[in-house]
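Shape matters. As here.
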Amino acid sequence: MKPIHDHIDKVLAASHSASGSAKSRLVASWRRSITVHGLDPGQDTLIDRIDEAALLRRRQEMERFLLVAAPKLDQLFGLVGQSGCAVMLCDSEGVVLDQRCNDADRGAFQSWGLWEGANWSEAAVGTNGIGTCLAENRRVIIHQDEHFLARNTAMSCMDAPIYGPEGELVGALDVSSARSDQTEAFNRLIAAMIAQTARQIEADTFRAAFPNARILHADADDTEAATLLAVDGDDIVVGATRGARKAFGMSATGQITPVPASDLFGRKDGLRGFEKAERAALIRALTRTGGNVSKAARDLGVGRATLYRRMKRLGIGENAEVLSHL
C-alpha cells in the first residue's frame, strides 16, 4: 500500500503548491481535478459507464463519423494491438464509443474500466489521457503515476484530439496500455502514430462532409494539422478544417463565410501551398487531354471560361507543347 499512499501524497502536495500549476501542465490538471471536480486521488470507485440505450444513442448521433473512423482504428490497432494495447475512440465528453482490443486482453481492460460506454472525462476520473486531452484540447501522454487516481497508476494513455468538418472538437483517439513494463520512449512512438491517425480521420471526415467539392491541401507551419479547404464549382471556398481556419484567419468553429478561393490564394500565408495544389491539378487535366482546354474543363466539371481564367492566373500555357515544359 505504500506506493499508493506515496502517490496520493505527491498529488496532494503538488496540487497545493503555490507555483506548481504555473510550472507544470500535469500539476495544473491534478489541481483542476481537486478544486474544480472535487475528486480525491485515493478514491477507488468504479468507472462510471452509461447504459446500453444511452451508448446506442450516442453512436447513432455520430454514425457517419464512426463509419469513417473505423478503418483507421483497424489500421492503428494492427500496429499496436500485439503489444498489449487497446485502441479507443471517444466522443467530446470522454465516453468511449468504439474500441479495438485483443481477446486475451479483454478481461484486463474491462477490469480497468477501459471499455465502450465508460466515461473517462477529467471531471469523472481526474487526470487521464482521454479526459485531459479533451479538457486541454491537445495531444497528451499520461504515463502511469502521472494519472490523478492512484488506482490508475498502472496504465499508460496516449491521446490526440479529433476535429470535425466545422472545426469543432468531436472526440479523442486513445491508445491505452496496462503493462507495467511500458516505457516512456515506446509511449512517444505510439503517440506519433495516434496523432497521424487522428489527422487522417479528420481529413476523411472533412472529405465526406463535402462530397461534391474539390479538396485542396495547403502547406502549413503545423505539420500535424489537417489543412484542407473545400471549394465548389464556382471556385468559392465553402468549408475549411480547423488547421486551414487557423492558417487563413477564419472563424475557429461553425460554418465559414463563403469566400472566393482567389481571395485566399492572394494571401501570403497560404499562397504557395494552394497555388501548387491547384496548378498541379490543372496541369494533370490538360496533360490527359493533350492540351484540349474544352475537354479538360469538362473533365474538371467547370466552364471553359473559368478554366481559362485559372490557367491565366497560374501561368499555364494552352497547348501540349507548353505543358511539356512546365
